[in-house]
Every structure is written in structure tokens, then in C-alpha cells.
Write a structure and sequence with these properties.
With 129 residues, the protein is an all-alpha fold. Helix content is 88%, strand content 0%.
Length: 129
Amino acid sequence: MEQDVVKQLVAGLFAWTLASMGAAVVGLYAKPREYWHAFWFMTGIWALVDGILAWFGLVNRPGPLADLSRLLLINAGLDVVYLAAAVFLMTRKGAMLRGFGLAVAIQGGFLLLFDIGFHLRCEAILAAG
């Protein structure tokens, strides 16, 4: 059961990576104005980082579920920081910064829900013993 959670976590992150990267490529191919260009570019950067993290999860042997649960909780805290940074960027005057902000908000929001959801699954498995 523990291995299933890890596999689902990695698969979910890879799926998000592919969706984000695909959307970024299509969005950038359309040659959008500055705001949307910044949005799609930042979405692509996040997809690259998410993909690298998913790849590390795929090639490394998973540790104890309790450690994964703690890591997911730490990541959720970082996601809140990303959301705060997104709000800051979205309130700036420049179109590029606002576009970056929207991309960070979407990525941070998804990752917050993703990390909390898997953290809660890990804790439920650990509590069930």
C-alpha cells in the first residue's frame, strides 16, 4: 500500500508536468503578448522543475512513509510561500510580472492541494498501522 502511494504521487506529478509543458508549448507557439508570454514561459519553467522532481521520485528508492509525509508537509509550507509570491507579482505594474504571478499562483495552488492530499493519505496509512 505504501508503494502504491509513492507510485501514484510520482504518476500524478508526471501527469501535471506533461499537461503544464504541453500547455506552455502551445501557449508560447501562439506568440502571445507580453502578459501571456510571461505566463506560458513561467508555466514551462515550473513544468521543467516538476518533471525533474518526478524523475527523481521515479529513479530513487522511496524512504519510509513517515519521511515522505513530513516532506509533503514541508512542501505544502513552501507552496504557501509560492502563493504569497504570486500575489505580490500579480499586484505589480508590469505585464510580465503579472503574467509570472498568475503562473506561480496556478502552480502553487495545484501543488498545495497535491501535497496536502498526499500528506493526508500517508498519515491515514500510517495511522492504520
